[in-house]
Amino acid sequence: MKEDSLLVNAGRHPERFQGAVNTPVVRGSTVVSPNLDHWLQSRKRQAAGEFGVSTYGRFGTATHHALQEAIVDIGGGHRAMLYPSGLAAISSVLTSLLSAGDHVLLTDSGYYWTSQFLESTLVRFGVQVTRYDPSLGSDIAALIRPNTRVIYAESPGSETFEIQDIPAIAAAAHAHGAYVVMDNTWGTPLYFPAFEHGVDVSIQAATKYIVGHSDAILGIATCNQRSWEKVLRTSQTLGQTCSADDAFLALRGLRTLGVRLKRHWESGVRIATWLEARPEVEVVMHPAIPSHPGHALWKRDFRGACGLFAIGLRPLPEAALHAFIDNLRMFGLGVSWGGYESLALPFSPAVRAIARWPYAGPGVRIHVGLEDPDDLIADLEHGFDAMAMAMRKTYECSES
Ligand SMILES: *Cc1c(COP(=O)(O)O)cnc(C)c1O
């Protein structure tokens, strides 16, 4: 089946649900057996890791199983585990693979809370953490120690959008028996085939494009055969689960992921290109535009892009940045992304230890939603006009 047909059909079994097109929301805690023999068999099959067998709501219901099945059908891998948030998926996977005395290499371009979890929480349990430059490919081998168990990647990086050479990193990791864990939220299972590129665990903040409507928080970790047992057992002992309602919303989001992403990608590139020509903008960081330093790698390894990127503004007074943001009507001011709506969020990438922000002005992360791009461009123009007015005012004040 081709991608779009898979998105429609993956994980659906109408015959099991009186013909209902969608797997219903199956809420529940207790799962009863018709007799003791069935109960004992079910427990055994579940302990052996058989897919779709559950003796308790915490281990999932039909709704959860439908999402787990669909994600593997679409993005590859062996099995998928669900979590109450993207961050819970990240922290649980890292806890599953690391023990006291182990070493983890963490990309310096990682999501803020991932770095926080490793550097403030896991270090308390005796895990050593070293950040690495996201531009490293096979040269990462020089940083691998005998106790390196995990190389953590995120491509493109949060806020700064560096594309990593994942196949080269995976080859170096596997030569030393280490796991490659990747935050693949930007690429989604559709546009970055993580397992074909050597990733062992691919993590989705499903909160973003999979749910796609800014109405649920959810995480998914898809594992290959090598990592699955460890991730499953530890996640189970951590009590990880998610609500059937949220799993249902993720399944609903999946059906339209293909068409939504195409539009986010197209509008994102159009607006990024328009912004690149603006005098107020020093740099545009969108992997799908040719000026991006990771463009060639993106073209080699990704099958598409999305609506999330960043710009670096030329240095400007604080009041002018406020005027720009405050006068945007269609771009909301808030965190998260991947919903149908556009967002613009100023950031200061001071958290980077190695890949320092080389620009004098502030950054603005932009999520291009599903609105008409002409309206979005008009909105940005309006914001830039307000910025110019605020700049003139600042200069008049400083002159008088
Ligand atoms: C949002 C995000 C997360 C965390 O997801 P939550 O569901 O908010 O916990 C992880 N990684 C990336 C790249 C994100 O953007």
UniProtKB/TrEMBL annotation:
Belongs to the trans-sulfuration enzymes family. Its EC number is 4.4.1.8. Its cofactor is pyridoxal 5'-phosphate. Coiled coil: none annotated. Pathway: Amino-acid biosynthesis; L-methionine biosynthesis via de novo pathway; L-homocysteine from L-cystathionine: step 1/1. GO terms for biological process: L-cysteine catabolic process to pyruvate; transsulfuration. Gene3D superfamilies: Aspartate Aminotransferase, domain 1 (3.90.1150.10), Type I PLP-dependent aspartate aminotransferase-like (Major domain) (3.40.640.10). The modification N6-(pyridoxal phosphate)lysine is found at K208. The keyword Lyase applies. It catalyses: an S-substituted L-cysteine + H2O = a thiol + pyruvate + NH4(+); L,L-cystathionine + H2O = L-homocysteine + pyruvate + NH4(+). GO terms for molecular function: cysteine-S-conjugate beta-lyase activity; pyridoxal phosphate binding. NCBIfam families: cysta_beta_ly_B. Transmembrane segments: none annotated. Keywords: Lyase, Pyridoxal phosphate. It is an enzyme of class 4 (lyase). It comes from the Bacteria. This is Cystathionine beta-lyase. It comes from Allopusillimonas soli.
